[in-house]
Specification:
The protein has helices at about 15-25, 40-45, 95-110, 125-135; strands at about 5, 50-55, 60-70, 80-85, 115, 135-140, 140-145, 155, 160. It has about 160 residues and is of the alpha+beta class. It has a seven-stranded mixed sheet with strand order 1-2-3-4-5-9-6. A two-stranded antiparallel ribbon has the order 7-8.
């Protein structure tokens, strides 16, 4: 699979919404509970500091995406936050790693000094492994910080990386 990461376009939004809403439907990693539609999806992706898409150059399908934005405001506005989504069927093909690395570069380019993840669910083993591999630092554990789709609670493990 030949992956290129670029800024999203309005033409990408339909595929992006499908990928995003699938993650929301799974209910095991994104904090969002509401689904996106064409209008809300475009507004959401366009409101970020940067929204990147991983495009499979072999068939022009979007294989994944990320959003990047400030984690806070004012005196903490130099800390960024991001979310990543990889399409079902191509997970395990290192697309997530490419998205995170691109995001780290883009965050630095945009003037952020830190990339922080607030809510990495402790059962998201692939994300935890990837962040450790890339040098992110665990901040601790927030017990039962994430409400799973099945109504149970899981711990979350915030992470950060100095850009």
């Amino acid at each position: 699979m030949n992956i290129q990461i670029r800024s999203f376009t309005q033409e990408d939004v339909g595929q992006m919404i499908q990928i995003w809403n699938n993650i929301v439907e799974e209910g095991i990693s994104f904090p969002q509970m509401e689904y996106l539609n064409e209008k809300s999806g475009y507004e959401f992706f366009n409101s970020q500091s940067f929204t990147g898409v991983a495009v499979n150059q072999d068939n022009n399908d979007i294989a994944g995406l990320y959003i990047l934005h400030p984690n806070n405001v004012g005196r903490c506005g130099h800390i960024s936050n991001a979310s990543y989504a990889v399409k079902q069927g191509v997970r395990g093909c290192h697309i997530g790693e490419k998205l995170v690395i691109d995001c780290m570069e883009k965050a630095k380019e945009l003037g952020f000094r830190i990339l922080q993840f607030n809510a990495v669910v402790n059962t998201n083993y692939s994300a935890l492994h990837l962040y450790e591999k890339l040098g992110f630092i665990k901040l601790g554990v927030i017990p039962e910080g994430f409400l799973m789709k099945d109504g149970t609670y899981q711990d979350i493990v915030p992470h950060y990386y100095r850009l």
